[in-house]
Amino acid sequence: MEIPVSPWERWAYRFGLAGEGQADLIERALIREPGTVLDIGCGPQGRHAANLAALSKLLIAADKDSGMVRSARSDRPMPTNVRFLVADAFNLPFSCNSIDHVIALGLFAYVKEPDGVLGEFRRVIRRHGKIFASNSVAHERGMLIRAATAVGLRLTHDLEGRCPAASGPVKRRYLCVFEPS
């Protein structure tokens, strides 16, 4: 049985936690440059994986919590280009330069040392790939940007938008898009 979702959730959250306009930015980028996409911290909702898979040659939906992966996998019938994986963002089981894009929506709310995770993203991403990272404005974005810069990434987009599910009193999220320097 499918859980009903609001129009806001259906549109803005179609790939996971994102603020107003952020899923649109992700969608445009994936349409322009389709490829292998890693959705790290995928969470329990398979509809996010199915929506991302429609814009990917291969979608790898990964989370360190096996229960989240199990839930997402069983949420609905999945397109054939989706693979589910239990994986830790600090130690990704991929070879260098093997992923076209990394999507980490809400992941950095749980990461105390973003340079370790961003270093792994930098290692696995291909030369022209993009990393999409969103978080509530309750979490300081400067630390994320400084960590990305330290591991050889450059900020290409910084978009803030309304998000009713954002933590803290200000219901907004930011999306930072990084590319290898």
Layout of secondary structure:
Elements: H1 7-12, H2 22-32, E1 36-40, H3 46-53, E2 58-63, H4 66-74, E3 82-86, E4 99-105, H5 114-124, E5 125-136, H6 141-150, E6 153-162, E7 172-180
Parallel strand pairs: 1-2, 1-4, 2-3, 4-5
Antiparallel strand pairs: 5-7, 6-7
Helix pairs in contact: 5-6
CATH topology: Rossmann fold
What is the name of the CATH class?
Alpha Beta
CATH architecture: 3-Layer(aba) Sandwich
- How many helix segments? 6
Please give the largest β-sheet. 7 strands, mixed
Task: Look at the structure and name the CATH superfamily.
Answer: Vaccinia Virus protein VP39
* Average of the residue pLDDT scores: 93
The poorly predicted ranges are none
Reading side by side through the largest sheet, how are the strands ordered?
A: 3-2-1-4-5-7-6
Indicate the structural class: alpha/beta
What would you note in describing this structure?
The protein is of the alpha/beta class and about 180 residues long. The protein has a single domain (about 5-180), classed as 3-Layer(aba) Sandwich (Rossmann fold), CATH 3.40.50. Helix content is about 30%, strand content about 30%. The protein has a 7-stranded mixed beta sheet with strand order 3-2-1-4-5-7-6, sandwiched between helices. Helix 5 (about 115-125) links the parallel strand 4 and strand 5 (about 125-135). The mean pLDDT is about 95.
At a glance:
The protein is of the alpha/beta class and 181 residues long. The protein has helices at 7-12, 22-32, 46-53, 66-74, 114-124, 141-150, and strands at 36-40, 58-63, 82-86, 99-105, 125-136, 153-162, 172-180. Helix 5 (114-124) links the parallel strand 4 and strand 5.
